[in-house]
Amino acid sequence: MMNYLELYAVRHGETAANAAHLLQGQTESPLSELGRQQAEALATRLENTEFQALFSSDLSRAVQTAVPIAMRQPGLEIEREPLLREWNLGKLEGCPQSELMKYPELLKSLLHLPEKSVEVPGGESTGELQARVDRFMNRMSNEFFGERILAVTHGGVLQCMFQHVMQCAAGNMAIRPLSDNASFSIFRCFLHPATKQKVWRMYVWNDISHLSHLPVNPTFTL
What we know:
Layout: E1 4-11, H1 16-19, H2 33-46, E2 53-56, H3 60-71, E3 78-80, H4 104-109, H5 126-143, E4 148-153, H6 155-166, E5 184-191, E6 198-207
Parallel strand pairs: 1-4, 2-3, 2-4
Antiparallel strand pairs: 1-5, 5-6
């Protein structure tokens, strides 16, 4: 048993909506052919890493990404977790990325942590999203300490995981990095030797070396 929690956090493979630069949010959009190839490449990359639990957003694009990983992990079942769903973008879901130009504070929040919670028309505010991801991270550190787990999720959620781990100050210009489709990042949670409180560290961000044989099609939408 390890003396820390190790969390592999994966972004789902490419979808048709990603390729078309549409805002997905929690709207269902299955993996594209490239996305399926990315998921297989990711699963091959991780097949020699043993996980004690496998969580996935309950949105289909995340589950489709998780399936080939689970197939290479004997006895491991996918646990569908609503806390890992993508940001609910309300009435913006299905719209072109350019629609964000009408909401400058929301657009800015995609790259920079806002100094206050930003509202989304008909959707989930940035504060509500962060609180939801914080609940997931806290649950993992409490229930799976000493184990290695994997979570398949979405770009917006990964940004919030980054914020949870790095504890950056609001307004910092470089604290919401984007992640690529079918990338993985690695976070660890330790007990501080002096305070005995749990502290997070980031060890890997946005590893896509397993996708080097596939076309490059970076996506910038959620």
